[in-house]
Amino acid sequence: MARKNDLLSEDYFMATTNHINLLTQTPCAALQPFVRRFLVVESTTEHRDAHLPDIGMVAAFCFQGACQLDSGRQAPRAALTGLWDTLRTHVHSQDHAVVIVSFTTTGAAALLRQPLHEFANTTTDLAAVLGYPAGLDRLHDRLAVATNHEQRIRLVEELLLGQAANSQLDLEIAGAVALIEQTEAMLRIEDLARQVGLSQSALERRFRYWVGVSPRKFASLIRLKNVVKLQARGADLTTIAHGAGYYDQAHFIKDFKRFTGLAPGSFFARSAAN
Predict the structure, then answer these.
(1) For residues 130 and 112, what is the distance between their CA atoms, to the nearest angstrom?
(2) Between 48 and 80, whose confidence is greater?
(3) According to a count of CB atoms within 10 Å of the terminal CB, is the N or C end of the chain lower?
């Protein structure tokens, strides 16, 4: 299993990466509108990690060990994590191993057929969402005895393919997401609504359903994503602020601190020391 050396730049997964092994895999063609990729993460020592806000929901299927959430409670064996707008931390047992589904921005809503804003800033038991705990218990048992990680990913794919039957994306909202990403969050919301052919109120309502946050909050998450990418390339903070679309350094620092609790310089210095 390949070891990942720099998760921060790609997945906003600020782990002390000497403590994990990571395998990534592209989903099958039928799932690609809904799933960005699969990951299998194995802990090699007990450790704490931190996660920056991301732009898509995540489902995690634990097949070994345990993970403790910020709240102190143990993560469900099958967990669904919505979009968070703050830094969150986990504590992983030495033998923790999990299959992670990284959904496309609107893919989770299509598969779950539920409004994603209800899952914002939460980690929920997936059994309660899907309504068939016995099936997820069987999946857990099959994941635990599978002979390799590729087989485990196929088992999770089977579950998601069942959910994907007759699932459709909201094309206007998918288009709005693409425009925010393509313009690096520099498009005004009223201009965004006009370009996708929706009123601003309809855009706001449908965006919260399909993405989980407002278009403005999503744009701020895209800027955060760009900040992380630029920092990983070695850019200084002034270059990062300008490249991520901030008008000035003060707005950049305020926005970043709102997400992480720390100023950018302090945050990246701390992450480099871990």
Answers:
(1) 7
(2) 80
(3) N
